[in-house]
C-alpha cells in the first residue's frame, strides 16, 4: 500500500514508541549493543589471539645474566691435561705383568735353558754346564747366551758340591744326557716355584717336589 493510509498502518502509538525506546536504552546500557545488532555465532566462538612470550629463551638468559651451556676452550684443555696426567700415572701399573706371570716366565726361561744345555751335551758328546749367578741373577751355558732374571727374583740352588763356587752354581750335563742333578727354588714376593733336574735322565721340569 501507498499513500497516507500506508503511513498510518506503520505508525506506532505513542505508548509503544516509549516502550521500544526504553528497551533500546536498557540494552545499550547493559550489553553495549544496539537493539538490532547482535554478535554472530562465529564472533562468540572465535578464540582469543595468541600472543608470543615476552622474551625468547636466548633473550631470557641474556636478560637475567644466565651463562650459556657448554665449556670454554680453556676448560676443555684443562680437562684433557688432567686425563693425560692420570693416564700417564696409571698405565704403567696397569700394563705391568703380575707377579705370577713374571715368575712363570722366569721359570720357563730356566727350564728351556736347561734342556738346551742337555741337548748340546748330547749333540757334541761333551759335558756342558748351565751356570747361574744368584747374586746378579744371571745364567748362561755354551748353548745359551747370558740372560738375566728379574731383579726382585730370588734364587736358591740345591746342587752337587763340585758345581758350587761362591755365588755361582750350576747343573752339568754329560754326553749320555745324565746330569749332576739338583733343584732350584724361584721366589718373587709371596710366590714361588721349584725346578727339578733329574740326575739320571737329566730332564728338567717344574714340580712341587723333586
What report would you give on this structure?
The protein contains 6 helices and 8 strands. It has 210 residues and is an alpha+beta fold. The chain has 2 domains: 64 residues, no CATH class; 108 residues, minor pseudopilin epsh domain (minor pseudopilin epsh fold), CATH 3.55.40. The strands form 2 sheets. It has a 4-stranded antiparallel β-sheet, covered by helices on one side. Strands 4-6-7-8 form a 4-stranded antiparallel β-sheet, covered by helices on one side. A hairpin with a 6-residue loop joins β7 and β8. The longest helix is centred in the middle third of the chain and has 26 residues. The radius of gyration is 55 Å and the shape is rod-shaped. The chain starts with a helix and ends with a strand.
List the helices and strands and how they pair.
Elements: H1 4-10, H2 14-31, H3 41-45, H4 57-63, H5 73-95, H6 99-124, E1 128-133, E2 138-141, E3 144-148, E4 154-159, E5 168-173, E6 182-188, E7 191-197, E8 204-206
Antiparallel strand pairs: 1-2, 1-5, 2-3, 4-6, 6-7, 7-8
